[in-house]
Amino acid sequence: MAALSTPEVSTGELVLSLRGIDKNFGAVQALTGIDLDIYSGEVVALVGDNGAGKSTLVKILAGVHPQDGGTITSDDKRVSINNPADSNNLGIATVYQDLALCDNLDVVANLFLGHELGRGTINEVEMEKRSWSLLRQLSARIPSVRIPVASLSGGQRQTVAIARSLIGEPRIVILDEPTAALGVAQTAEVLNLIERLRERGLGVVLISHNMADVQAVADRIVVLRLGRNNGEFKVADVTYEDIIAAITGASDNAVTRRAQARVDAAGAPAATAGSRPDDTALPEEDRP
Amino acid sequence: MTTPTSTPTPSNPDGPPPTETVRLAAVAADLQDERLIQPHGLGGTVRAFGKRVRSGDIGSLPVVIGLIVIWVAFSLLNPNFLSSTNLVNLTLQCAAVGTISIGIVLVLLLGEIDLSVGSVSGLSAAILAVSFVNLGWPLPVSLLASLLAGVVVGLLYGFLYTRFGVPSFVITLAGLLGFLGLQLWVLGSTGSINLPFDSWIVQFAQQWFLPDWLSYVLVVLTVLAYAGQLFLTANRRAAAGLSAVPATSIVVRSVFLLLVLGVPTWYLNQTRGVGAMFLLFLILVVVMNFFLTRTRWGRSVYAVGGNVEAARRSGINVTRIYVTVFVLCSTFAALGGILAAGRLAAANQGSGGGDTNLNAIAAAVIGGASLFGGRGSAFSALLGILVIQSISSGLTLLNLDSSIRYMITGAVLLLAVIVDSLSRRTRVSHGRA
């Protein structure tokens, strides 16, 4: 419950690695051979069209559905995530799109819901103190923590939901469409917040349909298309058009196949289909 | 305190000329946002209160005003209404149904309902009378058996609700009929069983009153405990760098509480005084309020009532909360049945029947427990039952027929629900839902 502790995680360390994840719902193969690496101190954006399998992948990480095939590795150990508790124990915190806040309770009560401090009786003073400390660390602009969550704006509610995920000292925070329902200024606030999570050394998985947000805040973009990996980019050297092409599948044409053939001929490790030769060709250990 | 960069202290009145950091540090951690409207002084507190009321966060204000209106109206119609004798009777009438109403507040907090509390209270009265009088069990064993019946009923409701997801409305409607039948079956052919007058349960409910000195000692102790707890909290908040209630405000509140408790106690002491049964009811309300506001269980109850999915995702054992609340509700109903039987010195086929059920539910709603879940407090039961019994007592004094009594109580209930819905709508439009 050390919501105040300064981040100790060094950045750039591989915290969670997914390999060949399969998932099917009846006759529908929702995910096929998905690979995903999550590094500390890095924001990885998971993008894709509707039905690409983003939410399914998140649910596997959050322990809502177990995967059907593939391996999950955490700190070089194979792990399985069968329920939400397993996910929590691995240090994964998920902020769902609907936020799951109790409107009738105040900010402090929502932040510590299910993890109240104090023995026997609730220690409100300590909880309020830590709430302020946590919100200050996130530079969150919430006027009072003793007002019901219902009276906060959409961005502030999102802030509370994100801050709540940090109470359990997670290593990975998964944000499902955090800016979907927000205005311009509030979106900017949430993006600032995501950057602060990265500064704290957390691995952040950002799911979004908004390419502007993704390009503004993400370090790496993983594209899913029809349940498969369809490219992995570094934001620094990719254009909007490239991402859209990977999302929609427009990059799967003669030109890209020819570029791929040249990379393969050069002997470099094979990049994921659809990616450009000069971005993700880095070997695993050279990653930041 | 000596160095400007030391830990923030809430007040630093005569320090060096304030730099920016000192100025910030001098403001409590929770009052630094410049958008926060801060009340200054007593006038500011009053204005802040008025603002809160206008935005629909009315709390128990309507019921207190309602109670004053009712009392003024009835005392104008019949001066005997506000006599000490009548008010002592009023408190005794409150205890049994009020106890049942505490349980109703709990289920309402979850956004559920228990329609069978009347039948369960009748069943427990029947079990008490039959086991104690007909079977000759020792009184404590009979009381325990009656309470246990409530526990079992609550467990059954909790199981049905959490296992099959049947709406509580339907489960408890079935319970209303089923346990009424069980009550009649337990009573058997006799139909009515008198409890012996010298048994202590009857004495407790009818004859036991606090000695004057003891009632005043209790009032003073309560006020001291209240003030002490406020002072402790204020000190701890100040130590943590948060805004704290000023000492003058604590004194004002404590004096107010002293008047609210002391004056009625003095008035009741003019005749028989404070009944032991009423005191038990007050203690139950205070204890329940403590559990609801200060423990994880209470916080979980409000969370489940506010957003059950959020509560589940944050790791609260939702099933356990539902089961404990249904068990508590039925057990409070059983206890209410015991108190009613003690006061009547009998259990009969009509025990827990008539308007017991609806009075208990109406009291909780009139007292401010929202039907939509997540809002209300244990004190809702106390305030609500005072309103209901005041109306009932006043109309009886006016020699009005029970037909009129029912209609007026119904109208008051309707008014309370309208106030609840209106304040909910105002809260939504003021962002306080």
TrEMBL record, chain A:
Pfam families: ABC_tran (PF00005). CDD domains: ABC_Carb_Monos_I (cd03216). SMART domains: AAA. Residues 16-251 form the ABC transporter domain. Keywords: ATP-binding, Nucleotide-binding. Residues 276-288 have a biased composition (Basic and acidic residues). The keyword Acetylation does not apply. Residues 262-273 have a biased composition (Low complexity). One of its GO terms (molecular function) is ATP binding. Residues 259-288 are annotated as: Disordered. PANTHER family: CARBOHYDRATE TRANSPORT ATP-BINDING PROTEIN MG119-RELATED, SUGAR ABC TRANSPORTER ATP-BINDING PROTEIN. This is ABC transporter ATP-binding protein.
UniProtKB/TrEMBL annotation, chain B:
Pfam families: BPD_transp_2. Keywords: Cell inner membrane, Cell membrane, Membrane, Sugar transport, Transmembrane, Transmembrane helix, Transport. It is a multi-pass membrane protein. The chain crosses the membrane at residues 58-78, 90-110, 117-137, 143-162, 169-193, 213-232, 244-267, 273-292, 321-346, 358-374, 381-398, 404-422. It is found in: Cell membrane. Part of the binding-protein-dependent transport system for D-xylose. Probably responsible for the translocation of the substrate across the membrane. Coiled coil: none annotated. InterPro entries: ABC_transp_permease. GO terms for cellular component: plasma membrane. The keyword Transmembrane helix applies. This is Xylose transport system permease protein XylH. One of its GO terms (molecular function) is transmembrane transporter activity.
